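Tutorial sheet, problem 5. The two components below are modelled jointly, 786 residues in total.
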Amino acid sequence: MLASLLPALRGLSLPLRLQLWDGKAIDLGPAPSVTLAINDPEIVADLAHPSLDLLGAAYVEGRLDLDGPLDEVIRIGDELSRALGKDETAAPLPESHDKATDAEAISYHYDLSNDFYQLWLDRDMVYSCGYFETGTEDLDQAQQAKLRHLCRKLRLKPGERLLDVGCGWGGLARFAAREFGVEVLGITLSREQLKLGRERVAAEGLEGQVQLELMDYRDLPRDGQFDKVVSVGMFEHVGQANLPLYCRQLSEMVRPGGLVMNHGITSRHIDGRPVGHGAGEFIGRYVFPHGELPHLVKIGACISESGLEIVDVESLRLHYARTLDFWSRRLEANLDEARRLVPERALRIWRVYLAGCAYGFRHNWINLHQILATKPHEDGSHELPWSRADLYR
Amino acid sequence: MLASLLPALRGLSLPLRLQLWDGKAIDLGPAPSVTLAINDPEIVADLAHPSLDLLGAAYVEGRLDLDGPLDEVIRIGDELSRALGKDETAAPLPESHDKATDAEAISYHYDLSNDFYQLWLDRDMVYSCGYFETGTEDLDQAQQAKLRHLCRKLRLKPGERLLDVGCGWGGLARFAAREFGVEVLGITLSREQLKLGRERVAAEGLEGQVQLELMDYRDLPRDGQFDKVVSVGMFEHVGQANLPLYCRQLSEMVRPGGLVMNHGITSRHIDGRPVGHGAGEFIGRYVFPHGELPHLVKIGACISESGLEIVDVESLRLHYARTLDFWSRRLEANLDEARRLVPERALRIWRVYLAGCAYGFRHNWINLHQILATKPHEDGSHELPWSRADLYR
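Model answer (structure tokens):
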């Protein structure tokens, strides 16, 4: 089986060594930088038509082992899949998104281990795209800059009420309260995030300003009580079918004249057809169950139809690639410690997911858009300044 | 007929005087600021179910005369139409957009009279939304700032090749050549714009850098010869059916790594259903024949599907309201001169169109979006700076 594959594999001239179950090693190109150890001979059949999903799954399940820099591993996996993989054109099927399913999906990912996330996230545990104002910042600086960029876009003023939908460990909630003097309600479906989030609020003495709750976005009253609403890395979990409901919910929770910021990952194609052989399947199976990425114009349509007016959109695609580079490198530098915190299988998933998503953002398979919208007053007026210059002072 | 209408009209308590054909005057509310002179008794039937289209048409055709501040006229017309008009929910039918139809439609509006446009546009004759950085600028300042804002967003560098699709009288082309050192090809379908545009290029000695041509966007070669493409106030004329073609055209004329800016008027609703009783019909009939406004997400979808990546969107809705206030006030201050330049019927059309569109932008019936997109390199990289801070230095 392998023998019949070797001409095609060698034709790609990849810097890859195959380490076989019987001790033999085959170099597919000069100066291999990556070694793929095949523990299970049955995997060889998959190599005839590889995909990032097949390769990733084999690694997660221990049928393959990897040695070499992870970004190089991903690049080689992509080249293999593009050269030999089957064409995929079908968009994924819609996912179920009732409250129980969503709670379970969120728990699967975010309740993994607070200590594990602390190992490679920034000091404020901001688990979303950083903002590199010049490209020279470190991770802590980029995450603080991102929090400030969001607060500035929301034009937060002391005393305002901010809702943070999908608040994670509360990094943005605490930053907004501390630096901009607002009152924040943050909600999450992750018990682990809530626990550590509340501890950090208490440690900063912000209990009077920041309230964190375990709550589904559908359970919030639609009474326009918030001046501003922010949602970071959240609409990816909502599902295409629920996006209109989700946007109406945000729109009806903000007062007229208020602002809503949606920051999240968007798909490359409007119809959801995949980019990157099998990358999406791997993410859906192992990383973000029930996750669905809408295209910018799909989430934009739902925002518009909810009565909000889109006023500012910014792509931060390459910022997310760089953020994931930082996360991946920090995890790779702490693998021994990580093994003490999470099962080997989870570690394998997170390793390829972080390096793979960096690659996916860099290669324009997925994007990151910050979409700012206002809810205009009845007469069409709003409360935004004439220009965006205030964001850059 | 009128007697039976009066209770309903009086119930609105509008500051409106009806001056009848027989010399009688009826005040519908206290302290009338506007007088509507009914020259033709048959118009009274229309007042039972008024719309901005019916009222505007009656004024254009001389069956009504108006006296009073135009912004107040429009406000009263809107209140009448909302209170007594029929509900409209149907989206307008698609318009024809072959090359001959488009050329005729453009000529109808833009070939009206260069001298007339010079009467109320800024000194550079920029016939699109100005950019009020602080809200205190005059019209000339706002248009110069808009040209600079566009050039900055396009990150123009000396020696680059810029295509200006729908170049008007060449204000942007000359500005970009003079201030940013680029070479510009500008195309228009208006012979009058071309004539005066070329004179102004010559007067500034920019013939070596700026070339203006009478050309349809469909006739440009798709050879990626331009570093940057800009289109201002153009996609409103393209038509919904041709938007995908139009975007593919722009996408294929720009080199990989280049930028495309689409600046234009967008509709309130995605399905095109009207806002403002009959305002759209009036514009289509008298002002911009065959004009069609896409929603932001519709033009955004076409841009995305053409292979471009949307990186920056900015709404300038209230900037356009203010721009139109300036234009309308300047025209109102020069009515005698205007009457010497264009027929009375055209003057009536332009008077209510300018004041009416100011009202429409202010009340969120229509919007203005600047949509910047890049054509990424094969490997997903692009040439934009990390942040938008350079736009505000």
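Marking note: Chain A is about 45% helix and 20% strand. Full credit if you identified this.
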